[in-house]
Description:
- Chain A is of the alpha/beta class.
- Chain A has helices at residues 26-40, 57-60, 70-73, 91-104, 124-131, 147-163, 165-183, 199-203, 236-242, 273-286, 303-313, 321-326, 343-346, 354-366; strands at 2-6, 49-53, 82-85, 110-118, 226-234, 250-259, 293-297, 383-390, 395-403.
- In chain A, a hairpin with a 4-residue loop joins strand 8 (383-390) and strand 9.
- Chain A is globular.
- Chain B folds into 2 domains: 3-217, NAD(P)-binding Rossmann-like Domain (Rossmann fold, 3-Layer(aba) Sandwich); 225-431, N-(1-d-carboxylethyl)-l-norvaline Dehydrogenase, domain 2.
- In chain B, the strands form 2 sheets. An 8-stranded mixed β-sheet of chain B has the order 3-2-1-4-5-6-7-8, sandwiched between helices. In chain B, strands 9-10-11 form a 3-stranded antiparallel β-sheet.
- In chain B, a hairpin with a 4-residue loop joins strand 10 and strand 11 (343-346).
- Chain B is globular and about 70 Å long.
- The chains are: A alpha/beta (405), B alpha/beta (444).
- The A-B interface holds A 123, 125-126, 128-129, 132, 140-142, 144-146, 209-212 and B 73-74, 76-80, 84, 87, 90-93, 96.
Amino acid sequence: MIAGYNTLSMGTGRKEFNPKKERPGLEEYIREAGQGTLAKIGGAENVDECVIGNFMASRFNRQANLAAFFPYVDEGLRYKPAIRVEGACATGGLALMSGIKSVLAETAEVVLVIGVEVQNTVKAIYCADYLAGAGWFKNRKNGHAYFFPGQFSDRAGSYFEKYGREKTRQALARWFRNAIENARLCPTAQEFHNTVHDLEGQAKMEPNGKSFVDHLNIFDCSKVSDGASAIAIVSQEGLKRCGIPVSQAIEVKGWGQVEEDITKPPADPTELSTTKQAVKNALAYAGITRDQIGTAEIHDCFSIAGLMCIEAIGFAEKGKGADFILEGNTSRTGRVPINTTGGLIGWGHPTGGTGVHQAVTILEQLTGMAGDAQVEITADQPYGLTVNMGGDDKSLVSIVYKKAE
Amino acid sequence: MSYEERLQHVSVLGAAGKMGSGILLLTAVEMADLSLKPENRGKAYVLNAIDVSDEALAGVMKYLKAQVLKLAEKKMVGLRKVYAHRADLIDNDEIIDQYIFDVISLVRTTTRLESAYDSFMIFEAIKEDPEMKIGIFSKISLNNPHKPWFFTNTSSIPITKLDEGAGLNGRIIGFHFYNPPAVQKLVEIIKAEHTLSEVEAFAQQYAKNLRKVVVPSHDKAGFIGNGHFMRDILHAAAEVDKLSNEFSFVEAVYALNKISQDYLVRPMGIFQLVDYVGVDVCSFIMSVMNPYLENEDLHCHLLDNLLEQGIKGGQYSDGSQKDGILKYEKGRPVAIYDPGTKTYVSIGDFQSKVDGKLGSMPVPPTWKNVVGSKSKDEILQVYFNGLKQTSGLGAELARTYANRSCAIGQQLISSGVAMNENDVNTVLLTGFFHAYGPINDYLK
């Protein structure tokens, strides 16, 4: 993969954001991200196929048929094959998978992939309805007003009960602090302007079930974001065509793409079992152990999901995720820096774009192009890992990367 | 009759006014919430919105719809439970639309006073005219077989006078909201001499359900809020007169407005507050209060003089500020009215001259930064300590103003309007959004 590009993650937190003023629409985000990547790969004529990932433009923006926006990105993309994919918040990951498979099937040497979501068209209370589409609609009626915060609050409640509340809440507060501190190093991050001094203190605010959910507060939640990311997936032939040096590319070493039954509740709410399976598949495919991972971008749609994902990957045993975080292992100087530009809580979560954003961040980190957010990648831990989750641990894409040689 | 039964048929008089529409909104929501309880399903709830103009009443319905929408969005977590039995309402927006419909459909707008003849309770927010209020109360009381209770929003007329005038035998209480009622947390409850205990109990329950802060006030004209505010205006007006050797009229008004806002750390200056309430309203409240006051003449020549020239202030129906003593651009004062030339003089023309004469002052904290601060008390003490040690005209005016405000507060207690210092401070803090109560030790 090469030529990653992220737009700003726009929404509360950014100084430019004013909900009462008109903002760029879906098409502007698509165009900015697409043109950003095209400029790096020598233009649209080098592209064979296009994939766009988007979750819910049909409701947020009353727009469908998104593949037809590629010629709007660049006239050179007219009449080229393009497809739109959807898998809730794992949409971006699935868009990457679609591109990877085209390259492996040798139907394309260069695939342009864009992930996009523009969500600030409605207030959070309506946004909750739209995002609830990631769950089984028959569960919506009995679900919480804030449907997914409700789902993960229930998971957090179960986790607190099983493994203890106090330390877990401390770890979630640390998770928030790491996310914001990392976001401050990335100019496109939604929390880039955050200047709060006592982040952990802020994140320890008691949850209030009367106005929100019982076990999580707003600092435990990812952002409502407008944003898009783009990247090019290329074969070796494609890399040459685009004129990009190998040193600026990363190689896909393996993946796990798995689905779980959307109609079934989790067997164990304290565990992300589908995530566990996806990561297991990805590591096996790549033929590596988790100890060789130097940095990871994981799906912290909620802080508790971040913690459980760490356990699902196997960085910590079940029930020990809080210790792993509190010991500093996930910080940017820790054993395995996680979400180095802020993740979904700090950088932002434009749902359909998140999976692509994760790939762009790993590309930047493994090739030394992450700017102020750069972490050290050592020779004995050269791999990057992404975990992109759709719904409540239902659609999963996990990919292992390494700097191309 | 229980609390819930009494709220099954209610009328709001003056429902299209600024206060009345807010009372209508709060009451409609309270009634709708009762009607949505499982045990009350199927019961009829009626809220008459009575006013003199059909046009104004049409505007009220738009206001209600917009406000109930905001409210429903805020209390969505609870509303999902309320509508849990409705299988057809799934998404939040469907529930919100239904809630708006359920609230709005209780409300019947009408220009006919006769509608109130069926109500169990009457909220009144009409003009501050004792004779008009007494006339209407009498008429409803004579024609309504339910012996309804009257909740008057008067901010200045003694409740006992209304009770006796209309022959209500204690079926009345002062229930004084602050402007705008939907936002302001404060309610002053004023018992008349013979207010029935069950009326008072209902008033307390109603205020609690509306999550209001209640301050009891004795039945003396103006109660606590206007008791302080009107005398505060008189002080400012007297200071404007005193400064006439030093300053022109517009300069003096500017100086006092600045002192009372910036140097007393208040949300707005005294003359801007008069414009906000309305020059005519303030003048009228004084005239209503004045006959009931002993050894005091509550009368403001400055306001009368401006009113004669048609300077009224007040607000447009969208809540934006009309020009009054001050002229506004985007809600900020930009000029001051000069009765001599009958024109507005731009503040920029004299600002630096007046500021210079006021002299150097300790830099005051802004009201916005103080009001929500945890270390409010410390910040204010540091500032007022600085003010104590500053000489010059501005500092002197600020100290005199603060001391007078404190004295007005104490006068309200000694004259039996307020029960204690805390009640006075609570009214100014919650009803006027001051950052601190007028009775304090900052300058001692």
